[in-house]
Design a protein that fits this description.
The strands form two sheets. Strands 4-3-6-7 form a four-stranded antiparallel sheet, with no helix packed on it. The chain is built from no helices and seven strands. The N and C termini lie far apart (39 Å). With 95 residues, it is an all-beta fold.
C-alpha cells in the first residue's frame, strides 16, 4: 500500500489513498513531533489534510487495521506567495 501526493498548497496536502482492505487512516504530524499525530479517514481515492501551517514540514503515514504500513513520507506545505499548485503557478526567488 502506498500514498501518492497530488498537491501541496500553503495550508493543505492532498493525497491519493489506495483502496482499503481494512479501516485505513492517514496519520500526519509536524516533522520532529512524536507519533501518534492527527489522523483522517482514508477510504480510497483523494483525501486532503487542511489547516496546516505554511512553509512547514510534515510526516505522513498510512495505518491499516491498526498497523502502520509502508514508509513514512516527509512533505512540505507551500511558502506564502510562492507556492504553485495545479490551479496556479508562481515564481519565487529566495535570497
Amino acid at each position: 500500500m502506498q500514498l501518492t501526493i497530488l498537491d501541496a498548497t500553503e495550508t493543505s496536502l492532498t493525497f491519493t489513498c489506495p483502496p482499503p482492505s481494512s479501516p485505513t487512516l492517514l496519520e500526519y504530524k509536524p516533522y520532529g513531533s512524536p507519533w501518534p499525530g492527527s489522523s483522517v479517514s482514508c477510504p480510497g481515492g483523494e483525501v486532503t489534510v487542511s489547516d496546516l501551517l505554511p512553509a512547514s514540514t510534515y510526516c505522513v503515514r498510512l495505518v491499516v487495521g491498526g498497523e502502520v504500513v509502508g514508509e513514512e513520507m516527509v512533505v512540505d506545505t507551500g511558502v506564502p506567495g510562492c507556492s504553485g499548485s495545479k490551479k496556479r503557478t508562481r515564481r519565487c526567488v529566495i535570497m
